[in-house]
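Narrative of activities, Objective 1.

The group set out to show that a structural description can be obtained from nothing but a protein's sequence at a throughput compatible with the screening campaign. Below is one input-output pair from the validation batch, recorded exactly as produced.
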Amino acid sequence: YKKSSYKMRKFIFLIFFYLLFVIKKRNKKYDKLIKNKGVKKMIHLIAAIGKNNEIGKNNVMPWHLPADLAYFKQATSDHTVLMGRKTYESIGKALPNRKNVVLTTDKEYHLADATVVHDLHEVLTQYQNSEEVLFVIGGANVYEQCLQYADALYVTRIHHEFEADAFFPSFNEDEWKETCVINGETNERNPYAYGFYIYERN
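Output recorded for this entry:
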């Protein structure tokens, strides 16, 4: 019995350190992307897109990719995130550990857990002249309005076609430098081929 108990404790011990190794390895992979020295601080667009620039259908992402959600969380935590009203309502609440800014034309729209703004130009001007990072997180209309002001694009490319009614705006890749690419790991929880890309404006 004591021998069996010892083997069990040894097995649990090995599993514990294996999990620590996996988590540390994953975080290093994300840090390589997030802390990329080539990316300037200012206005960043971050999005996961399908093969045809799809980003959503009926205000919901048409895929479930936990690796991208983890990457998004680590990239945007402790920063300001800017989103449209529909994006906020699809999430259902402010994202934790981030300053949430919601853009809407509705002057009567108020939120207890986020800052509501009505003038996009004013918000972008504030962050263009700041060392603080602003991540634009959607939706399609907000991406399109902000693209011309962006300094960097954090794009998760999912190499699969999806039905969608919302799309990330096309951008001229000649105007951008691809500064980092990491291919994601496909597995049971992340069934699609995908990769993390960072582009910096030339």
